[in-house]
């Protein structure tokens, strides 16, 4: 390191030993038998806002549109995806260090830590580097067949684990999911800035639990107050991809493991934007 080091490698051309790696240097290669065309990360500023549900619904819609679709569940400490698809079976190895993903009823390929654990109620109490290493292996050791669109349910937040995932998997775009309350806080801003720093295009924002519809008169009720997604999207120059209602049927579909049967057209525009990536 030179004595005049500013610790900002972007403004210095010196090829010194302490030069920070660019994000591209940290990208991992997928398994040699994997063929994955587009990878979309689904992120949120914090847990519990419906990120896994949005990931599942997007995968279901793209599968309905007859694309070969996969879900990489990188939310290691809160893996809820297999349950919402009603998957109980475990992933199998190929005997040479590779792992086959499990296929859902409609043919979505999936990998999640719950498909590897003996008991899905066992808590994952691993430290950050182990969690990040597991996600990397889901990318490098899983034999993904021909996949048009892979959705990555990212670990929530903007800490060490999501950062490592951002750096190791080559994402073609990210979708930010937020609840109305998050949209008025700085949490979304952090998630957006993280993606910008990684130079990953943000496809847009999805507001989950935006409103509830009265079962008697159909009137929209803003349970968490007025929606703020339009002003937040305008602030960051991002498109709004969807506004999802609180729908007890959706929660039921997840709980009963039949998310593939969900009805509703709220996510069609988001799916159109994802589909554009292949054109
Ligand atoms: N719009 C909605 N209507 C009804 N239920 C919903 C809706 N969005 C999410 N839920 C329910 O809320 C719960 C949490 O959702 P989900 O697991 O997708 O959140 P998450 O952001 O992925 O959380 P974490 O990151 O902590 O895993 C689930 O049981 C899901 O079924």
Automatic annotation (TrEMBL):
Gene3D superfamilies membership: P-loop containing nucleotide triphosphate hydrolases
Top-rank taxon: Bacteria
Region (Disordered): 1-20
UniProt xrefs under Pfam families: ParA
Gene Ontology terms describing biological process: iron-sulfur cluster assembly
Binding site for ATP: 45-52
Entry-linked InterPro entries: Mrp/NBP35_ATP-bd, NUBPL-like, P-loop_NTPase, YlxH/NBP35
Job description of the protein: Binds and transfers iron-sulfur (Fe-S) clusters to target apoproteins. Can hydrolyze ATP.
Family: Belongs to the Mrp/NBP35 ATP-binding proteins family.
Subunit structure: Homodimer.
Protein's recorded name: Iron-sulfur cluster carrier protein
Organism: Fumia xinanensis
